[in-house]
DNA sequence: GCGACGCTTTTGATTACTTCA
DNA sequence: TTTGAAGTAATCAAAAGCGTC
């Protein structure tokens, strides 16, 4: 039953092996991908793929971390049978036993701790005391999470063994981490969209104002005073685009603007929202001479 | 300075439900 | 269609952090 990962599943806790390839862009970039980096290289759940027959690589840093961890008394010294899943009754160094609620132990009994054989433990402490992971444990988990946001059973067991935790604890930690990462990303996305919305609202307000001014100007008699006859400023009543049909583009000041009618309807990928689409048209035409 | 106290935040754990092979 | 193993979402509650007295 207990599959022995004799090649000692080198938990690749190092980030140094592969230089991070797709560094997350500074900002929500992931509105499209929607999840942060770790999720990207995440193959679909159900890790049946042998791809991840445990993390392969052991880097210097990993070794370092490992020896480091060996030195630490991470929780109580759990004696782990090599192949068979451990599950020493784990408790944090500070807090007492992490006990388990009745239902939980029941469940573990039933499912046999999934990967584990010995549901062990805790001897039936009623009060559910929560253990907190040590900094070192948390650090290793974080490192691992950066590489793989979820673990296959082998990895889970190996990591648990390494950290002197129960596989279930590792599993739970990863679940929580995924959930909270996602939540955080959602918040970021939300903020980003909010600011986009504000910008667009502001832009819209400004453009509306400009349209109104143009309308007013168009009706004003002054408007026609210095106008070259061939030049006409027309506005489509439906789309409200302004177009100038003129032989002399200088009359408007921005021929490109006029002939393409890009004044109001601009493309979405235009760089800056705050670019004034009417750079010269009004000041140029209505320069007073007195 | 320091300890008690209350409130808030963080985080390990549980439960219910969904998805997929 | 059923089943079991994986996942997520929501929630609880212990531990830690922090400000105040």
TrEMBL record:
InterPro entries: HD, HD-ZIP_Homeobox_LZ_Class_II, HD-ZIP_N, Homeobox_CS, Homeodomain-like_sf, Leu_zip_homeo. Its main location: nucleus. One of its GO terms (cellular component) is nucleus. Residues 11-20, 91-101 have a biased composition (Low complexity). Residues 1-52, 85-130 are annotated as: Disordered. SUPFAM superfamilies: Homeodomain-like. It is found in: Nucleus. Residues 124-184 form the Homeobox domain. PROSITE patterns: HOMEOBOX_1 (PS00027), HOMEOBOX_2 (PS50071). One of its GO terms (molecular function) is DNA binding. It comes from the Eukaryota. Residues 126-185 bind DNA. Residues 190-220 form a coiled coil. Keywords: Coiled coil, DNA-binding, Homeobox, Nucleus, Transcription, Transcription regulation. Pfam families: HALZ, HD-ZIP_N, Homeodomain. Belongs to the HD-ZIP homeobox family. Class II subfamily. PANTHER family: HOMEOBOX-LEUCINE ZIPPER PROTEIN HAT14 (PTHR45714), HOMEOBOX-LEUCINE ZIPPER PROTEIN HAT3 (PTHR45714:SF11). This is Homeobox domain-containing protein. It comes from Ilex paraguariensis. The lineage of its organism: Eukaryota, Viridiplantae, Streptophyta, Embryophyta, Tracheophyta.
């Amino acid at each position: 039953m207990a599959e022995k990962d004799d090649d000692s599943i080198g938990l690749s806790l190092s980030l140094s092996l592969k230089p991070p390839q797709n560094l997350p862009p500074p900002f929500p970039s992931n509105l499209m991908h929607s999840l942060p980096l770790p999720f990207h290289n995440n193959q679909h759940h159900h890790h049946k793929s042998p791809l991840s027959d445990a993390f392969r690589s052991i880097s210097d840093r990993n070794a370092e971390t490992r020896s480091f961890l060996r030195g630490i008394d991470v929780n109580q010294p759990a004696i782990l049978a090599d192949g068979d899943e451990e599950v020493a009754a784990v408790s944090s160094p500070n807090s007492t036993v992490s006990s388990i609620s009745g239902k939980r132990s029941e469940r573990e009994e039933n499912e046999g701790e999934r990967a584990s054989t010995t549901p062990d433990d805790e001897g039936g402490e009623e009060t559910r005391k929560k253990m907190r992971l040590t900094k070192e444990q948390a650090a290793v988990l974080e490192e691992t999470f950066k590489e793989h946001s979820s673990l296959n059973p082998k990895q889970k067991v190996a990591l648990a063994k390494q950290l002197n935790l129960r596989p279930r604890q590792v599993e739970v930690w990863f679940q929580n981490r995924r959930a909270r990462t996602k939540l955080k990303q959602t918040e970021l996305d939300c903020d980003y969209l909010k600011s986009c919305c504000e910008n667009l609202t502001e832009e819209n307000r400004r453009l509306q104002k400009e349209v109104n001014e143009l309308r007013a100007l168009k009706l004003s008699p002054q408007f026609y005073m210095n106008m070259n006859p061939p030049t006409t400023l027309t506005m489509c009543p439906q789309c409200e685009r302004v177009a100038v049909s003129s032989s002399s583009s200088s009359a408007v000041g921005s021929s490109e603007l006029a002939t393409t009618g890009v004044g109001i309807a601009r493309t979405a990928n235009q760089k800056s929202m705050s670019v004034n689409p009417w750079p010269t048209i009004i000041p140029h035409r209505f320069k007073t001479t007195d």
